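Subject: Protein entry, chain in single-letter code together with its fold tokens

Area: Proteins and the way their chains fold up in space.

Attached in line: The record itself begins immediately under this heading.
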Amino acid sequence: MLRETIVAARRVVVFTGAGISQESGLGTFRGPGGLWERFRPEDLATPEAFARDPALVGRWYAERFAAMRAAQPNAGHRAIARWEALFPSMVVVTQNIDRLHQRAGSRDVLELHGTLWLSRCARCGRQVPTDALPPADPPPPRCACGGLFRPGVVWFGEPLPAAVFARAERESAAADLFVVVGTSGSVWPAAGLVEVAARAGAAIVEVNREATPLSALATESLRGAAGEILPLLL
């Protein structure tokens, strides 16, 4: 049944979370052992935290960026990239900020939570590649306008990028196959895209190591590592 569903698919959305990047050595934010078990989001991932102690926030994200830059796409990322040649329309919608999908070869990626590969000035909004910024001690570096550069990610209390999320909703509503990979299903409104696809009649395939709040919507649930399961779906 799953084989026939995949073969018949024409419009495919792959929705990914931190679980797929965990297989590349990057820590997840939620769940057992996640970063938010060891650090308080209020201290590191809010506009208020940045205003209060930009050096602390800057150092923490500099460490995250160094880890992401050193990480390599895994078999799961590469399998998703290869799917683009198989389906007439395919979009990757990700909660991840590491750009491992793009580095694996995926071309149409919607980043719901932004990316650490970009930084923007907190004062004037100027956006630059993070690895093009001059070093600063303490971080973060300053813009020509005098403002501080902050990570180009969505922090707690901030809205998702409106145009990106609007397109993600449209693609989810039009999909006939919606593949959920490595997400806890607890981050909203991103997790609501699965409900959008299910209401529109898409087949929902969940690939995860364990059950999530989204499992009840799944047509098929495949338990295990993304890097092992996704290549088999090819």
Observations:
- The chain has a mean pLDDT of 91.
